[in-house]
Design goal:
The chain is of the alpha+beta class. The protein is built from six helices and three strands; from the N terminus they run H-H-E-H-E-E-H-H-H. It has helices at 13-20, 24-34, 56-65, 90-109, 114-121, 125-138; strands at 39-42, 70-77, 80-86.
Length: 146
């Protein structure tokens, strides 16, 4: 059976950084990408490695220029170039779907669950809701779609 060749031949720290910096909007974009969707971003050809985590546009660009995304279309808006990006193939989709899910699981595993357990024991619905909301904010809903 064919297998993803390059997935474990190098570090996927760029995607790991994406997870670490992900806010709710980025989590939704990651979910869309895994589901076959796209992300639109302004293209910056001058992004350096030191700047990739300065903002999400830089990170999307760096990932595009290193092969994690392919360009479906591009257009000009004023003097700026924009592109619609997608995951290019099964190998990269594997990285996103498997590795990203594992990293989100790891984030949940390192979370202190004392308050969650206490809420269960004492039937404190308000605390339980607050703790579950926090856990869900740290993960993406795609994990639950397995």
């Amino acid at each position: 059976m064919p297998r993803a060749y390059w997935v474990n031949t190098s570090s996927n720290n760029i995607i790991r950084g994406l997870i670490d910096y992900a806010d709710d909007a980025v989590k939704e974009q990651i979910e869309d990408l895994i589901a076959g969707g796209t992300v639109e971003t302004q293209i910056h050809e001058d992004v350096t490695y030191n700047e990739i985590y300065d903002n999400m546009d830089n990170l999307w660009n760096f990932m595009f220029f290193t092969g994690y995304f392919c360009k479906l279309r591009e257009w000009m808006r004023g003097d700026n170039i924009y592109a619609e990006l997608a995951i290019p193939n099964r190998e990269v989709r594997y990285v996103f779907s498997e590795k990203v899910q594992n990293w989100f699981r790891d984030r949940v595993k390192t979370r202190d669950m004392t308050l969650l357990y206490t809420a269960f024991i004492y039937k404190d619905c308000a605390m339980l809701k607050m703790e579950l909301d926090g856990i869900f904010e740290e993960t993406i809903s795609y994990i639950g779609l397995e």
